[in-house]
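The data are quoted verbatim here:
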Amino acid sequence: MKRFHVHLHVEDLARNIAFYSAMFKQTPARTEDDYAKWMLQDPPVNFAISTRGDKPGLDHLGFQVESTEELQALKTQAEQADMALLDEGETTCCYARSDKYWVTDPQGIAWEQFHTLDNIPVFSQKNQAAPQAGACCAPKKVIEVASAGCCAPTSAQVANGAKACC
Protein backbone atom coordinates (compact mmCIF):
# COMPACT_ATOMS: atom_id res chain seq x y z
CA MET A 1 0.00 0.00 0.00
CA LYS A 2 1.22 3.48 -0.84
CA ARG A 3 0.81 6.33 1.63
CA PHE A 4 0.76 9.90 0.32
CA HIS A 5 3.44 12.10 1.95
CA VAL A 6 3.29 15.86 2.53
CA HIS A 7 6.02 17.86 4.29
CA LEU A 8 5.49 21.51 5.21
CA HIS A 9 7.89 24.05 6.68
CA VAL A 10 6.34 26.01 9.55
CA GLU A 11 7.50 28.91 11.71
CA ASP A 12 5.72 28.06 14.96
CA LEU A 13 5.79 24.31 15.58
CA ALA A 14 3.61 24.29 18.71
CA ARG A 15 0.89 26.40 17.06
CA ASN A 16 0.89 24.14 13.99
CA ILE A 17 0.84 20.96 16.07
CA ALA A 18 -2.25 22.28 17.84
CA PHE A 19 -3.89 23.24 14.52
CA TYR A 20 -3.20 19.96 12.71
CA SER A 21 -4.00 17.83 15.77
CA ALA A 22 -7.42 19.50 15.88
CA MET A 23 -7.87 19.17 12.12
CA PHE A 24 -6.90 15.48 12.07
CA LYS A 25 -8.54 14.71 15.46
CA GLN A 26 -5.35 13.00 16.63
CA THR A 27 -1.98 13.86 18.09
CA PRO A 28 1.23 13.37 16.10
CA ALA A 29 2.72 9.88 15.89
CA ARG A 30 6.14 11.50 16.45
CA THR A 31 7.08 14.87 17.93
CA GLU A 32 10.56 16.39 18.25
CA ASP A 33 11.79 19.93 19.05
CA ASP A 34 11.74 20.82 15.33
CA TYR A 35 9.41 18.22 13.78
CA ALA A 36 6.06 16.47 14.02
CA LYS A 37 4.50 13.70 11.94
CA TRP A 38 0.99 12.28 11.73
CA MET A 39 0.46 8.83 10.19
CA LEU A 40 -3.15 9.16 9.12
CA GLN A 41 -5.19 6.10 8.18
CA ASP A 42 -8.18 7.81 6.57
CA PRO A 43 -6.99 8.98 4.14
CA PRO A 44 -3.61 7.23 4.35
CA VAL A 45 -1.20 10.19 4.60
CA ASN A 46 2.23 10.69 6.16
CA PHE A 47 1.88 14.39 7.02
CA ALA A 48 5.01 16.03 8.43
CA ILE A 49 5.92 19.56 9.53
CA SER A 50 9.29 20.97 10.56
CA THR A 51 10.99 24.24 11.39
CA ARG A 52 14.05 23.38 9.27
CA GLY A 53 13.06 25.21 6.08
CA ASP A 54 14.05 28.57 4.68
CA LYS A 55 10.45 29.81 4.53
CA PRO A 56 7.02 28.47 5.50
CA GLY A 57 5.11 26.44 2.95
CA LEU A 58 5.31 23.25 0.96
CA ASP A 59 8.70 21.54 1.14
CA HIS A 60 7.97 18.39 -0.85
CA LEU A 61 5.41 15.70 -1.65
CA GLY A 62 5.90 12.00 -2.05
CA PHE A 63 4.83 8.42 -1.67
CA GLN A 64 5.85 6.19 1.21
CA VAL A 65 5.68 2.49 0.38
CA GLU A 66 5.72 -0.59 2.59
CA SER A 67 8.26 -2.72 0.72
CA THR A 68 11.42 -2.69 -1.36
CA GLU A 69 9.41 -4.22 -4.21
CA GLU A 70 6.87 -1.36 -4.20
CA LEU A 71 9.70 1.19 -4.22
CA GLN A 72 11.37 -0.58 -7.14
CA ALA A 73 8.07 -0.59 -9.06
CA LEU A 74 7.70 3.19 -8.60
CA LYS A 75 11.35 3.70 -9.60
CA THR A 76 10.92 1.57 -12.74
CA GLN A 77 7.80 3.56 -13.63
CA ALA A 78 9.73 6.85 -13.28
CA GLU A 79 12.64 5.51 -15.35
CA GLN A 80 10.33 4.28 -18.11
CA ALA A 81 8.77 7.77 -18.25
CA ASP A 82 12.33 9.17 -18.58
CA MET A 83 11.95 11.26 -15.43
CA ALA A 84 15.16 12.72 -14.02
CA LEU A 85 15.76 10.63 -10.94
CA LEU A 86 18.09 11.33 -8.04
CA ASP A 87 18.66 8.01 -6.27
CA GLU A 88 19.89 8.44 -2.70
CA GLY A 89 19.67 4.75 -1.86
CA GLU A 90 19.71 4.09 1.87
CA THR A 91 19.95 7.39 3.73
CA THR A 92 18.66 9.17 6.81
CA CYS A 93 16.32 12.13 7.16
CA CYS A 94 13.36 13.27 9.25
CA TYR A 95 14.15 10.93 12.15
CA ALA A 96 14.10 7.88 9.87
CA ARG A 97 16.43 5.62 7.91
CA SER A 98 14.97 5.07 4.44
CA ASP A 99 15.71 3.86 0.95
CA LYS A 100 14.66 6.70 -1.36
CA TYR A 101 14.89 8.57 -4.61
CA TRP A 102 13.59 11.94 -5.83
CA VAL A 103 11.97 13.34 -8.98
CA THR A 104 10.94 16.93 -9.69
CA ASP A 105 7.64 17.85 -11.36
CA PRO A 106 7.26 20.53 -14.08
CA GLN A 107 6.41 23.15 -11.42
CA GLY A 108 9.67 22.42 -9.60
CA ILE A 109 8.08 20.51 -6.70
CA ALA A 110 10.31 17.77 -5.32
CA TRP A 111 8.67 14.34 -5.01
CA GLU A 112 10.21 11.85 -2.60
CA GLN A 113 9.57 8.15 -3.17
CA PHE A 114 10.68 6.14 -0.13
CA HIS A 115 10.54 2.99 1.97
CA THR A 116 11.14 3.61 5.69
CA LEU A 117 13.48 1.03 7.18
CA ASP A 118 13.78 2.25 10.79
CA ASN A 119 13.45 5.22 13.14
CA ILE A 120 16.54 7.15 14.26
CA PRO A 121 16.97 9.44 17.30
CA VAL A 122 18.09 12.60 15.41
CA PHE A 123 16.80 14.47 12.34
CA SER A 124 19.59 13.15 10.08
CA GLN A 125 22.64 10.99 10.55
CA LYS A 126 25.54 10.29 8.25
CA ASN A 127 26.55 6.63 8.37
CA GLN A 128 24.45 6.25 11.55
CA ALA A 129 27.07 8.26 13.52
CA ALA A 130 27.40 12.01 12.88
CA PRO A 131 24.44 14.37 12.38
CA GLN A 132 24.15 16.12 8.99
CA ALA A 133 23.55 19.83 8.62
CA GLY A 134 20.92 21.19 6.26
CA ALA A 135 17.36 22.32 5.99
CA CYS A 136 15.30 19.26 5.25
CA CYS A 137 15.38 16.09 3.27
CA ALA A 138 15.38 17.20 -0.36
CA PRO A 139 18.95 16.94 -1.63
CA LYS A 140 20.66 20.03 -3.04
CA LYS A 141 20.40 18.77 -6.63
CA VAL A 142 16.61 18.40 -6.34
CA ILE A 143 16.33 21.83 -4.70
CA GLU A 144 18.37 23.41 -7.54
CA VAL A 145 16.05 21.89 -10.15
CA ALA A 146 13.01 23.00 -8.16
CA SER A 147 14.29 26.56 -7.76
CA ALA A 148 14.87 26.83 -11.52
CA GLY A 149 11.07 27.19 -11.79
CA CYS A 150 10.87 25.07 -14.92
CA CYS A 151 10.54 21.43 -15.72
CA ALA A 152 12.73 18.59 -14.57
CA PRO A 153 15.45 17.50 -17.00
CA THR A 154 15.38 14.02 -18.44
CA SER A 155 17.72 11.34 -17.12
CA ALA A 156 20.07 11.93 -20.04
CA GLN A 157 20.11 15.69 -19.37
CA VAL A 158 20.92 15.10 -15.68
CA ALA A 159 23.82 12.86 -16.73
CA ASN A 160 25.14 15.78 -18.78
CA GLY A 161 24.76 18.22 -15.87
CA ALA A 162 21.48 19.91 -16.88
CA LYS A 163 19.45 21.57 -14.14
CA ALA A 164 16.25 22.33 -16.06
CA CYS A 165 14.87 21.74 -19.54
CA CYS A 166 14.03 25.30 -20.57
About this structure: Strands lie at 3-9, 30-32, 35-41, 44-50, 57-65, 86-93, 96-104, 110-119. Residues 17 and 23 are 10 Å apart (CA to CA). Residues 3-159 form a domain with the 2,3-Dihydroxybiphenyl 1,2-Dioxygenase; domain 1 fold (CATH 3.10.180.10). The first helix runs from residue 13 to 24.
